[in-house]
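Escalated from tier 1: alpha-D-galactopyranose holo job.
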Amino acid sequence: MDHRRWRTAAVAVLIAAGTLISPAQAQTARKDDGLALTPPMGFNNWNTTHCRNDFNEEMVKGIADIFVNKGLKDAGYEYVNIDDCWALPQRDAQGDLVPHPVRFPNGIKAVADYVHGKGLKFGIYTSAGTKTCNKDGGFPGGLNHEEQDAKLFASWGVDYLKYDNCNNQGVDAKLRYTKMRDALHATGRKIVFSLCEWGQNKPWEWAKDVGHLWRTTGDISDNWNSMVSIAKRNMELADFAGPGHWNDPDMLEVGNGGMTDLEYRSHFSLWSIMAAPLLIGADLRKVTPETFEILENREVIAVNQDKLGVQGKVIRNQGGNHVLVKPLSNGDKAVLLFNENDSAANMSVTATELGLTKAGGYQVRDLWAKTTTHTAGSISAALPPHGSAMFRVSAAQNWYLYPPAITTAADGQVLYPGALPIVQPGRSVTYTTSVSNTGRLPIALVQATLQVPQGWTAKATSSSFKAILPGEKTFKTTWQVTVPQDAASGRFPVKASFTFHSPHENNPVTRQYSTEALVPGAAPKGDLFVSDLKWLRSANGHGPVEVDTTNGEAKQGDGGPITIRGKVFTKGLGTHAPAHVEYYTGGSCSKVTATIGIQDNKVNPLSLVSYEVWADDRKVYDSGPVSGTDAAKSLEANVSGATVTRLVVLDGGNGKSYDHANWGDLKITC
Ligand code: GLA
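Tier 2 regenerated the structure:
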């Protein structure tokens, strides 16, 4: 046998053994089926019900009804999908999957028919493994049953399959998912194929012709940290997405209650600009009008569904202030200014940075405020913590038909960028209000006022009135805010109001901007355990910071004793990178000491962090890399003079997984 013939024979053997796809098969099964040319939109029950009993036929029908009655179908939502727990743990005598008789007493086809009857599409779930994922054991998965299951799904009228990754028996992912693709293809029914292998095998590199979308991360949870960390991972993969093959950062949490509406707006804006699938994950029978308002924002949806099909890209990220840009099919640019941080941020970007052609002026549509203005070139927003602003910007001939874009803000003096504005009783602090005219036309009779809590005073130390504010100019006023000696501690609102006359508007325009002031309690005194103090603010990479226990998982209070290399600490903090915890130390403390290291039962090759201590804007301690095998380290940091002492844990650069970082025996001397 010559060399070439030998190779052909070997390939034939592999194909017969089912370990290789023949070139001919690959040809016929190529996924050029015209499906998911824009990111899929719809619903999936998992994020709201998991396997609870309220996941049933009634729910699915209820969602389909709401899609129609509440205008979601008209807004573009199409797929009503069911997730894990729809089947029984055993196949029937023919080897077919069996719908759960209590959840789906009329079978799955009846539900699919109902959904189809509403002019919608129906999706189902299984796993590319021997069993699905749910912790109660799951139901039989599709591995080695690809054809039979695909046929069954097609016979029920399934239009979308989410194919999970649990219990995969170590079989190559490419092989598992390609097999199901071919099985779906062989049914002759057009079925959107959603790969759910959590980004483990970099599907963005190989799945373009396998599935229409692929998960890029682990599961989302209904909290800010989870949503943001998933969004940031997904941002990096923008180049791999396009019509018919999308990055999937998991389903939406909007409306599930774990975030504020402002945070859900950021979540929805991020998913939209990233051309992510928009699968609603809340029980629409129970959500608030605000949730519907977010999910049905058609101008934001239009950005997501734009037929150019480009995933928005990060063009800048300054310490958690992200600028994302998505080119649109009509030449406009969608832009998202996103503030990941716990402190307010003034953000801006120029039309040139967005890649727009040079123009006399630009039209700016604010997709949440629903206003249209013009700008000479700068697009800005004053964003609250976790806030975002989303615009559609176009180079416009007739920009002058719209009023100039005006940004208003108020900022308290801070000790370091991103710090809380702290005002000690009996002292004064400076606030600055600003009105920025980023348009070309002037505004007139600009008046700023600052409102402070009762008993406090706010005195303008520069003019608070400007007769004319020309285009591309900012008007600032500084204020001295004084807090009485006997002021209570707490967080208090400081509200700025602005009025001005703008071209195109008959009445004066009024704008408000709310910020806050933090009045600290008494500074600590003596030798103290830090975990006995009340922090000003904390943030943690996974679940909350825990007091006197290690950081467990996502829930508060689920950590065990702090244990580093066999030694147990009854006092301390349990954090998870990236974390920061801030304490008011009022200039009266001198040193912080602790024993630091990764929690024993969380040690993993991926555990790698570094610890820092900051005295206001000065870094006074840096541990360098700390891994799970490193011995416990003694930390001593000089925090003399610090108004705020900050404890920080950073991810060591290899992702934040398994970064459970302890601060054992954490003490402060004041
Ligand atoms: C995995 C998936 C989730 C969900 C559950 C169901 O965790 O990633 O999206 O489908 O399984 O058990």
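The longest strand covers residues 490-501.
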